[in-house]
Amino acid sequence: GEPRKFDPKFRGPIHSRHCTDVICCVIFIVVILGYIALGVVAWVHGDPRKVIYPTDSYGQFCGQKETLNENKTILFYFNILKCASPVVLINLQCPTTQLCVSKCPDRFATYIDVQASYRYRPDQWNYFRQFCKPGFNSPRKSVAQVLRDEDCPSMIIPSRPFLKRCFPDFSTKNGVLTVANQTTFKDGRGKTRNVTDLREAANGINNVLDARSVGMKIFEDYAISWYWILIGLFIAMMLSLLFLVLLRFTAGVLFWIFIFGVIGIIGYGIWHCYWEYDHLKGIPGSDLTVYDIGFQTDFKVYLQLRQTWLAFMIILCGVEVIIILMLIFLRNRIRIAIALLKEGSRAIGYIMSTLFYPIVTFILIAICISYWAVTAVFLATSGEPVYKVMANQTLCKYANLTCDPETFNTTNVTKLCPGSQCTFAFYGGESLYHKYIFIFQLANAFVFLWLVNFAIALGQCTLAGAFASYYWAYRKPADIPLWPLFSSFGRAIRYHTGSLAFGALILAIVQLIRVILEYLDHKLKGTQNSFTRFLLCCLKCCFWCLEKFLKFINRNAYIMIAIYGKNFCTSAREAFFLLMRNVVRVAVLDKVTDFLLFLGKILVAGGVGVLAFFFFTRRIPVFAQEVPTLNYYWVPLLTVIIGSYLVAHGFFSVYAMCVDTLFLCFCEDLERNDGSTAKPYFMSASLHRILGKKKLSPKKA
Question: Where would you find the membrane-spanning parts of this chain (predicted)?
Answer without folding.
Answer: 21-44, 226-246, 253-271, 309-330, 350-374, 447-474, 495-517, 529-546, 595-616, 637-657
